[in-house]
Amino acid sequence: MIMKVLFYLLIMDIYSLSRNYWNFAFDNPEKITPTHTAIYFFAIEHCNRLWGKEKFWFPSQMTMEAIGVNKHQTYIKYFNDLVEWWFIKLIEKSKNQYSSNIISLIYAMPKKDKALDKALIKHTAKQGAKQGTYNNNNIQTNKETNIQYFSSEKLNNIFLDFIKLRKEIKKPITKIWIEQNIKKINKLLLIYNEDEVIWFIENSIENWYQWIFEKKQNNFSKETKKLSYENTDSRTNFKF
């Protein structure tokens, strides 16, 4: 039971050390480098493997091999920075590169700041607002792609495909845009039969047009003009 409590306290200490480090890194981006981070978190890992000893040997050569630093001069520069910033408390300095420093992480008292916490909260709130806007737009789009705009199922389905294309190219699907395209289709139905109008819409989809365009086709029937009542069943029954 005692070991479990000690292990829990150790985890909490490691969490606090990590949190304080990233707060400092956020406030001082011009100072922190990946090498600083590698040394400090290897020190935390080494302390963890020693069951959270208050003071422990921290061999330079072992650390250099672990973090991939070849020159002792380079390593000691970044190590001294961490000491200066109070992330590592130097209990006893090594005599040379082959001896070890004795350090402490528990006694170290780095500056605590809540700037990173505030920035993360602000970022999370901003992302949440964006996600909420996206969800609302997505719900609205799904609603618009499930409406019965035309009494003809075939014509209605191809028009829904045209609306989905609008969504795929990230263009707004407004009430005015839908209304204008429906009016265009109704006008075309006064001149062409339903299959020909469907072909116009399919051609607009294939060419990624944002509007429905009339396109002449050689094999259209000669009797293209029709009375309005002949296409009454195909035209829209959707009311704005």
Largest sheet: 3 strands, antiparallel
Q: Strand tally, please? A: 3
- Count of distinct structural domains: 2
In which order are the strands of the major sheet placed?
A: 1-3-2
Question: How many helices?
Answer: 8
Structural class: mainly alpha
Structure description:
This protein is rod-shaped. The relative contact order is 0.08. α2 crosses α3, α2 packs across α4 and α6 packs parallel to α8. It is built from 8 helices and 3 strands; from the N terminus they run ααβααββαααα. A 3-stranded antiparallel β-sheet has the order 1-3-2. It has helices spanning 2-27, 34-49, 60-67, 72-84, 115-144, 153-168, 175-189, 194-206; strands at 56-59, 89-92, 100-104. The chain folds into 2 domains: 2-104, Arc Repressor Mutant, subunit A (Orthogonal Bundle); 145-231, no CATH class.
Quick recap:
It is built from eight helices and three strands, in the order ααβααββαααα. It is mainly α and 240 residues long.
Secondary structure layout:
Elements: H1 2-27, H2 34-49, E1 56-59, H3 60-67, H4 72-84, E2 89-92, E3 100-104, H5 115-144, H6 153-168, H7 175-189, H8 194-206
Antiparallel strand pairs: 1-3, 2-3
Helix pairs in contact: 2-3, 2-4, 6-8
Question: What structural keywords apply?
Answer:
240 residues, Arc Repressor Mutant, subunit A, 8 helices
